[in-house]
Structure formats: structure tokens, C-alpha cells
Amino acid sequence: MSHLLFVINPISGGIDKSDLQKQIESCCKKQQAEYSIIETKGKNDQERISDRIKEISPDTVVACGGDGTINLVANVLLGYDNIKLGIMPLGSANGLATELNIPEDVEDSLEIILAGKTIHMDILRINKEHISLHLSDIGFNATLIKRFEASGSRGKMAYARHFFTTLFKKKARKYQFDLGYTKFNQRAEMVVFANATKYGTGAVVNPEGQLDDGKFEICIFKPSPWYAMFSLAYHFFTGNMKRSRYVSILTAEELRLYTKKADTLQIDGEDLGEYTEVYVQIEPAQLHVIRG
Fold it and tell me: Which of 18, 76, 143, 146 has minimal CB crowding within 10 Å?
């Protein structure tokens, strides 16, 4: 009999989770699956999850929250090829779950988790310290996330309000790119390090991305006038970003990025602060992840 460990972030996405444990119990009983639950507390969570894994030896650990919660659990599971990572999307945007075709409905996502179809997913290692599973970036979107987190607000409507506030204050920076096989300078409003194709909103930033192809994409958003947002939005939601005159997409296995003035960096929806240097490298097939 399989044993699932559910890691629940009680504050993710501003979603009421009062009935979540009852739903988990009901679905697991139907499938005759054993389960355990642990809630994150915002302190020593990696150690607590790791200790619980050693205690109960689960077949699957399910991250119940947003991309930040998934990143937290993934950090613990690196090196555990015999344990699958499941996702119950309960965040504000749910980017990686969207990429993996996992629905936001609790019972539907549980059915997919219990079915156990998996891929061996790559990760991005950033500055040799952090991991990115989905999309990370420096510039516009990272600044948006920083403001969103600082506001203390939750939910998609709050995120949308901060988007438009940030949009009209966006700035371009000069970046130096070193991909190993080529070097160049480019002014940009945002640089995305993409292991996946789209944000949780459904906006496709990297049309040809794959989670398990042993490489990542660098999506460079060049300076653009305010009215370009309409054409960019069209390309985002039709999956034709490569056609935009304001975007360049390059494939790489590593990148060293430099800027003289520090800019905001985010990883999988979490603000990491400001950096003048970012080093990104691909690490293939690091996680056994359940997909829809």
C-alpha cells in the first residue's frame, strides 16, 4: 500500500483550507492509500519535512500550496529518486501545476497524484545555492512579485492590481550575457530563466520549453513603448512570443548574467532580493515529478 505525505502551506494563495484534510482523508480511503500530513510554519520547514520523510518513508510527498511550497518540498527531495513529488495547486498563480496539467480542484488533483504518472524533471541551479523548477527572472516580473509580497495581499485580483502599477514604472537595464559559447550586451526590462513554458496565468513566455530536455531558455524582453503591451499580451496568450520584435529567446545549459546596478531576482514566485550577478546552470533529471 502506498504512503503519501501531504505538506500543506496553510496561508498559500489566500485559500480557505479548513476542509482540505477531510478531502484528503476521503480520497485516500477510496484509493486505500495511507497518508500523513504536516503543515509548514515558515521556520525550519525543510528540516521538519526531512525528518518526517525519514520517519515514515513515503512513496510520494505532495506539496499543497503554490510554487514556493513546491520549491521547498523539491529541495528536500533532491537525491530521493525513489520518492515522487506530487502537487496540489493551492497558490495564487500555480505556475508549475499549470505546466504539468494538474487541475486546481482538490479531488481532481488527488486523482492524478494517486495515478502516479511521472517525468524525470530538470532543475535550474541559481547562484549555486537556489533551485528553480519553473520560471525565474530578473527585472519587471521580479519587481512585481516583490511589491505583491510586501503588500501582504493574496489572490489573483490583488496580483493583477500590482501588475498594472508595476507596468507603468518599468525600467530597462543594461545586462552582460555570457553563455559560454557567446557573450553580448543587451538592454532589457526583464530576463527570464525558463525551465518551463508559461506562467500560472497561462501567459506563454517560452513556447518551446520542456521540463525534461536537459536545457533551459533565456527570454530577453527588450525595452518597449507602453503600447507594446497589447501586442506582447497577444503573443503571450497565443504562444507566439518568438514572433515579437521585443523578445529574444536563446537556448543554453548555463548563463552568467551581469548588471552594474543591482536588480530584483525572483525564483519560482519568491523574491530573493537584488543582485548584480546571476549564475544559472541546468541539472538534468533531478526530480521524479507526477504530471497530469
Answer: 18
pLDDT in tens, 51-65: 999 999 999 999 999
pTM: 0.89
Query: Parallel, antiparallel, or unpaired: how do β-strands 60-65 and 3-8 relate?
Result: parallel
The verdict on residue 125 lying in a domain is no
Neighbours of 133 (CB within 10 A): 26
Decide the pairing of beta strands 135-139 and 190-194: antiparallel
Indicate the SS3 state at residue 96: helix
d(CA 289, CA 191): 26
Domain count, the chain: 2
Distances (CA, A) of 128 to 69, 121, 254, 278: 20, 18, 12, 10
The Cα diameter of the chain in Å comes to 58
**pLDDT tens digits, 129-153:** 999 999 999 988 787 777 666 655 6
Closest CA to 198 of 65, 282, 98: 98
